[in-house]
Amino acid sequence: MIDKQLQAYRTYQSFLQTLLTICGCWYMPTKSNKSTYYWSICTLLAMVTYTITNIIMSYNLRHDLRNMMKAIGVATAGVSAILKVSSFMIHRGSLINYHRTLNDLFEKELMQNEKIRMTIFSPLRTMYTMAYTYFTVMTALVLTYFAPSYIIIIRHFLLHFHLTTNYTLPLTKGFGYFWTVPDNFLYHFHLLYETSMVILSCTTATSVDSMFGFYVYQFTSTIRAMTFKLTNPSLTEKFSNLLRICVAKHQRLLQCRQTLEHVYGPIIFWHIIINAVHLCALIYDTMLFVDFNLSNALAFLSFAAVKLIQTFTYAWYGTILTNAGRYLSFLSLHPLIQKRDVLMGMMDRTFLLLHPRYHEEN
How many CB atoms lie within 10 A of CB 213? Predict the structure, then answer.
């Protein structure tokens, strides 16, 4: 059972690493370290270009409110991707130290006895289920919008051995560009451009958002292991020595929390604001529909589901992280009264995530 859970953890870890590599956010050194960094720059430039294109497109469609709001929505998604990629690039060194510290603590706990490993793996299924669900919803959304156009192209090619342009571009419908979309092979280029940019944007959102959950899982599992060892001390080990080790680990976790604040603080703050705006815009857009058919309903529900899942993901992970330090609260009742002040001190240093500007003002 433990081996299956360990394999599930490794799969979960590898899955997120692959997604982060695709979108240029993977920060750990590799054999091709320069190419990884250059890929991050290419990803960032691609999203900047795509965002600027959609901003100009929203201006060109200013007399068509519904399409203008759609272009603004795509542009803000591009801004979200830019923020995430740039944040991971700026804090690359801090993230490397963070990964080595937290991963080292977590892997050491995994090498303990079976009871501790069971404690560590108890919330694993919930965490990776959330990540896989998020990825599935994003994949379904992309396929819903882009698959019909590719099906038309493939079917026409198989029947007539010719690449047809008799389809509409899934995202823009061919309108809003500050150039005329030609009815030749460049039409297919526009389709590939829209597809690749949307996939890149969705991959960035899925990987960075889900990676936050992975970090939270490592945090809370390390805290659970510390709590278990403090409440079930070994007969061969002094409680004072065990407490000293746990306090040292707690200090290292607090340093990791500070790195997590600087990386994810602006991202979470951005999503709190922009997701609320997106949901309000979706509701307003729905009210403008003259004929609310199945296609419009699916479009509304899919976008709303993504934004709600994203908001819920950060809120839920943040709550878990905030409550992590409270696992130590009942330890103040431990029979060793002389150590109570140390435990209370650990309780006071909880794992709250705050926006970096909060520390400047306080």
Answer: 23
Question: What pLDDT is recorded for position 64?
Answer: 79
The separation between CA 354 and the C-alpha centre of its own chain, rounded to angstroms, equals 18
Which one-letter amino acid corresponds to residue 8? A
Please tell me the number of Cα atoms within 13 Å of 308 on its side-chain side. Answer: 10
Please choose, from the candidates 267, 269, 256, the residue with its C-alpha nearest in 3D space to the C-alpha of residue 349: 256
Q: Tens of pLDDT along 183-233?
A: 888 888 888 999 999 999 999 999 999 999 999 999 888 888 887 777 777
Q: For 60-106, write each residue's pLDDT tens digit.
A: 888 877 788 888 888 999 999 999 999 999 999 899 998 888 888 88
CB 200 within 8 A of CB 81: yes
SS (H, E, C) 196-262: HHHHHHHHHHHHHHHHHHHHHHHHHHHHHHHHHHHHCCCCCCCHHHHHHHHHHHHHHHHHHHHHHHH
**Mean pLDDT (whole number) for 16-40:** 83
Q: Which residue is listed with tokens 């419009």?
A: 296
Q: Which of 81, 82, 128, 110 is nearest to 313 (CA)?
A: 128
Question: 110, 120 in Cβ contact below 8 A?
Answer: yes
DSSP classification of residue 336: -
CA-to-CA distance for 62 and 130, rounded, in angstroms?
38
CA distances to 16, 84, 162 from 305, rounded to whole Å, are: 21, 21, 38
